[in-house]
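Q: Structure tokens for this one, please.
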Amino acid sequence: MNETQLIQRIISRMLRDPNALPIGLELLNHDICFLDLPEDIPAFKNADTIYINRSSRFIQTRDMEESVTFLLLHEAIHTLFLHDQRLKSKDPALWGMATDYMADSLIAYLNDFLKKDLVKYDPDKMFLGEEPFLYDPRYRDMLEEDIYDEINKTSEVVSRITKEMLSDAESKNKKSSNQTGGMPRVIQSRIRLRNNVLKRNDVEVNLNAGSLNSSKKDKFGEEDEDADKEKGIQKDVNGKLKVVPDLIEEKQKFKKNMARHTSLARHMLEEILRGHGTTASKRFLESLTGVKADWKRILKDSLNRALDRSADLTWGKPRLSWLVNKNYLPYLPDYADEPKPGTVIVSIDESASVGDHDVSMSIDIICQAKDMYKKIYVIKHDTHVNWTREYESIGNEEKKALLKRRHGGGTSHKEVFEKVMQYIKTGNGEETSVYIGITDMDSDIRNVQKLLAPWMPRIYLTRNKSLPKGIIGKVINFY
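A: Here is the predicted structure, written as tokens:
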């Protein structure tokens, strides 16, 4: 079995394991290339290519399939959790350590419920022996930023040496720097951590450059001489059916869609972790969402409602990267052309029992919602409504206006629901996706909720732990 076939087998097996499926889908976004490098770096990546160093001691001292499986899981998790984008002003070496600790903790956690006959790796072998990957049980339930803060308190970067990476390997590989779209550099750091000196190699690459000489052979399907004669014909992962995908896809368009595919994989991984419901998975979910309110849940409700109501949903042609297994995976819609959901209607309860802090937190939630919807229509009320506003963007001036209180009496939602339906009937809210009420729930919601259209998905965000019965919709305690 050659290296290409090994990669095909590893990823195709991930795609057959429901719990590893999101990671397998993410790996389909990347070319995977093997190199022989003088530096002992097991793997590194740029925007759309993962490079594996077959000469590294990590691979040389372990089972080939297990070590490559682990490396692919590790690099995919870095992408799914947006570790490159979250670096910001942090020290690169310490942030690299923190994200490695987190990624390896997640890989160890996933091993408990991945199918051993499909996704083969032994965490103990990866974290022990010669050139082990970073793992420390003390960081098992910590987020990357928390791990970074902890490491930053107890360590210092003693030295850094920067050098070009591929110059010594060119004669062996007979490959130029075009292999990675630009000459990468290895940054060798010495870090003093709790009186121990650690040596660390990090790779600096042009993240906007990809592989310029990746194999033209398809990632899936065994090698077939007949397939080479007929361009565009390939087998599925079971080697049974032949499909004829459109292989003519501009690389620029592929890169543009990669972020959307990664976002979909993140959502799928989130649902998998949520389903297991352990403390560790809860912590990992926090790093996926990072918001105060459960916007993933809200977005899912509104999208499901939109799908239920739509009779004209247009499905895009299946892309090559998603033609994984025709028998088990559905074709996906064309995310490149899919618009954001429509307007979100938010009502803010400004009754006397709702404090200024609650209003401030509500404004923060509204700003988060704005990133997920085309427009936002705000209603501020107590027993009556005398202030409404529609926003397409929310800046500092808009925040000041939203923070200004205009009510101070009791609470009623009768006029609020009437205003919602009026907004929809006038045509302004033709594409309304969801109604969100921020309230203490001490209101007449149960008695007047029939004023809202039955198809309207509705969410109530509250800090009141004593919730009334008979409420239609979801009630989420958001502090």
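A few notes: Residues 168-181, 207-248, 309-339 have pLDDT under 50 and may be disordered. The chain is about 35% helix and 15% strand.
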